[in-house]
Amino acid sequence: MKAIILAGGSGTRLYPVTLVINKHFLPIYNKPMIYYPLSLVMLLGIKDVIFVVNPSDLNTFKSMFGDGSKLGMNIQYVIQNKPNGLAEGLILAEDFIKDDTVCYILGDNIFFGHDIVKIMKQAKEEVEKNGGAYVFGYYVKDPERFGVVEFDEEGNVISIEEKPKKPKSNYAIVGLYFYDKEAVEIAKNVKPSNRGELEITSVNEEYLKKGKLKVKLLGRGFAWFDAGTHDSFLEAGEFVATIEKRTGLMIGCIEEIAYKNGWITKDQLLELAKPLKKTDYGKYLLEIAGE
What we know:
CATH architecture of the largest domain: Alpha-Beta Complex
Number of helices: 11
CATH superfamily of the largest domain: Spore Coat Polysaccharide Biosynthesis Protein SpsA, Chain A
EC number: 2.7.7.24
Number of strands: 14
GO molecular function: glucose-1-phosphate thymidylyltransferase activity; metal ion binding
CATH class of the largest domain: Alpha Beta
Shape: globular
Strand content: 15-25%
Catalytic activity: dTTP + alpha-D-glucose 1-phosphate + H(+) = dTDP-alpha-D-glucose + diphosphate
Pfam families: NTP_transferase
Function: Catalyzes the formation of dTDP-glucose, from dTTP and glucose 1-phosphate, as well as its pyrophosphorolysis.
């Protein structure tokens, strides 16, 4: 399985902060927002990642991650000239995905919870083995902001609707999707919505029509942040700060994950920590290395 991280867009909901900087570089507590979705992909054991980025941000992303080799990964980039909808990310990454299955995650989504990696790995293995699509629902107070999933009494999915004015449930589809190799072709056939965008909800609806969509609800033990608004951005930072201070462990530390995955050596980890040694982040990496 390969991964697509959508990190384009203009971040209008965070204006004026994002007038001069891409929101994915803004700090969620002590590290860039983009570290969190990348870290989840890494925890799933996925080494091949492509970032979908704005033309103006390409060099900054390359400066931050390069080709991924310093993390023992293969990182590539593809340009999205305009924010034409989430489904476009699948089309743009076609040459990268080829005939592989894909984990598609939004660059401003942050996940945390007991067994979150175990649950995501089960979804990954399900799609790799049996195909189809696997997505996740989360209870929210403002479902009109999201793609909303409706269930029957037996828990079967009846419908999915993008940003409905009258939501049929309070369960939002979070920004993490697992798809088989059919996803690109499905995305190519999606027609623009009333907003003029290629909606990822339309891709999920097509899988639903084929009887190949699985939805798992993430309950009370999980935290999900769509950090695209000022309030959710602040909440995410406060949440990460609280967890890290109480546990002494970092969330979203990509160097630590690469090391524990066996993708980089201790010497490579120390080399990554060297320019950061005066910061708490760098000191944490040195602790991980046993220095």
